[in-house]
Amino acid sequence: MKLRSIAVLIIFVILRIATAKSKTDEDEVEFMRLAGYGEEKLSTVVIGGRVLCHRRNMTHPSPLRGVEVGFLCGNEGKILSVGTTNGYGQFEIDLPSHLHAISSMEKECYVELIHVPKKSGYKRYKGKQRIKQGHTSENCRSYNTGNIIIRA
Predict the structure, then answer these.
(1) Which of 34, 86, 38, 43 is nearest to 65 (CA)?
(2) Measuring CA to CA, which residue among 132, 76, 74 is closest to residue 106?
(3) Its pTM surpasses 0.85
(4) d(CA 49, CA 47)
(5) Long-range CB contacts for residues 4-11, cutoff 8 Å, separation at least 24
(6) Alpha-carbon torsion, ordered 132, 135, 139, 140, to 10 deg
(7) How far apart are CA 143 and CA 45, in angstroms?
(8) Which H, E and C letters describe 19-57, residue by residue?
(9) Assuming Cys at both sites, which of 4, 26, 45, 119 could form a disulfide with 95, CB separation 3.0 to 4.6 Å?
(10) What span, in angstroms and rounded, lies between the C-alpha atoms of 90 and 46?
(11) pLDDT single digits (tens) 3-59
(12) Pick from 46, 90, 96, 95: which is nearest to 66 by CA?
């Protein structure tokens, strides 16, 4: 009888631990979802701008197509996300969710041209372009670089 009571108690403890572990896992999954790391996208952060080229014989700068623009933060020089300019020279970088929590994005982050097509006649452009906060809503933030002009 005593052995039977001990066996029931052990089974009860094992079931209790398993249930607690399952609840903890569910709580963690819910926390990750609320933080924006689940499959459902909860917020959007977009960096946009325009790349133009200005040659000496031109009156106005013209758009540059096919330029790869990198998003970087800090002094590490690690490219965190990339966008490419279209026929109007415009680019848009939709940041991955894990970068949305950067609090001082305007101070710490910037964009850099990482590849300019050879047929454009320009060599690699070096220089950091700061971002400025634009539109902000409940679950969307946008930043803009303005026009990035490459001079020949």
Answers:
(1) 86
(2) 132
(3) no
(4) 7
(5) none
(6) -60
(7) 8
(8) HHHHHHHHHHHHHHHHCCCCCCCCCEEEEEEEEEEECCC
(9) 45
(10) 13
(11) 666 766 677 666 666 555 555 666 666 665 555 555 566 788 999 999 998 877 878
(12) 90
Mind listing the pLDDT tens digit for each residue in 114-132? 988 887 777 656 778 999 9
Q: Which residues of 95-121 are buried (b: 16+ CB within 10 A; e: fewer)?
A: beeebbebeebeeebbbbbeebeeeee
Q: What is the pLDDT of residues 60-69, one digit of tens each?
A: 889 999 999 9
Looking at residue 53, its amino acid is: C
Q: How far apart are CA 73 and CA 80, in angstroms?
A: 8
Map tokens 């946009």 to a residue.
Answer: 48
Residue 88 has pLDDT above 80, yes or no: yes
Determine contact, residues 72/80, Cβ cutoff 8 Å.
yes
